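Please go through the sequence line and token line underneath and see whether the fold suits the sequence. See right below:
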Amino acid sequence: MDEAALIKQAQRGDLDSFNRLVLDYQGLAYNVAYRIMGEAAPAEDATQEAFLSAYRAIRRFRGGSFRGWMLRIVTHACYDELRRRKRRPSISLEGFDADSEGGESDSNPALASPGDGPETAAERSALARGIQECLERLPAEFRAVAVLADVQELEYQEVAAAIGRKQLYNLEGGTVAWWKQGYPLAK
């Protein structure tokens, strides 16, 4: 069944059709959430919350890019979690065991290729950590744009839709424009 048919069935209350949409988009949703959140557990929570929100709102989906609609829900779930973190900062104890035993708590086995030697795997892991550290320094909205445009390679219009903006691209200047409160933050 194609995506449009699955959406129509899900809008009629067919849970199996919605579950197939979840299966189609769970990897993309988690990847975006992981890059925005920077940690696996909060990314899993944000992804799960996003799919619950999408299920509750599927009847209001009016067409267009389902991927863009879904990623907008994911980015908003991440923003909500980041706001909660600011209000109630906490330290996770989960990572202390791996760090104290000399292991890497933030390693991602999905980044390793079966043919990679230890040196290549270590370089790839260091690069991934460096990119994630840079992403974490960005404000949440900028981080979401960087992840969606550069990591997920979405078109600017899809990125704009995902973060709730009308446009990101400044046609006159030929650059990506960041607008907040009526003035550009960066060019």
Observations:
- The first strand starts at residue 169 and ends at 170.
- DSSP finds eight helices and four strands in the chain.
